[in-house]
Task: structure prediction
Amino acid sequence: MKLFLTILLITFCLPVVAQVQNKTNVIKSVYIPLKAYKATGKTLTAQDTLDFRFNKNDTLVKMPEDYDIEAHAKGIRVPYEFKNEEFLKVYKNTVFNDDVKSPRKKPTIKIWRDEIKIYFEPTVPRSHRKELMTMANQLSAEIDSLNITQVRNRGKANYLVYYITDKSNLDLEPRITDPKKGYYIHWNGRQQIERAMLKVDSRLLFNEEDQIENLKSTFFMSLGMFHLTRQVPHNSFLSYSSIGKELTSIDKEILKYHYSYGICKGTTLEAFANTHASYLEMIKENPNSKLYVVHSHDYFK
Result:
């Protein structure tokens, strides 16, 4: 007789544990967070309280044996994507900026869900546009959930790229505080990036190679509102180094994982770390388990 424990944690997505059944009889126990249980309108019984289990800071309520997981965890189910601790250390540093012990605002996992439609202002040299779109097309081809195109109509764009030059010193987005280059993004309540503006001041970056390098690295950073880190090679876009940057293998690995639906989106560092720790604990207790993330259909609206 084998015990099969399933825990549903309801956030932007649902971590789900499922076990491969074999010839052994399986007793299935399903638990959901107390808040989610109360939302059903049901009243807790004395037996419910006796059956409480605890996972991190969540109180979990045992559901009846006929509880239909598929019916209550509607959405898109994707296998959870595991990464080693060394990679996750770098990922958490560049996404959550965890070097800062008490940030004014807690960073979250932000992605572009819709197609990125780039419009280049006339101030951007054609050769620079080509360089950026070559990289953008490469990223789009390698990452299924990331789609980047160039549009000719400014009104159809959600990503505007502009240069400040000797002939045109108009700053279209003064909220970009870095005088040489930078970006400004807008996101919704689901932590999905919806619009962005990117600036390069060619008056302060005299070398054309530096201008292109800063254009490409700034664009890359805007794809996830990433933070610079000292845990990657100096030539990485994510590095604190100011020269000699290029798209490296670690940059692409970070971006692919960031856009993978095998992890929850919109979460804080604490939630991300707790989910990963819970999954490690579950797989340790039952190596035959299969771990999934179920994204709510609402997330894709």
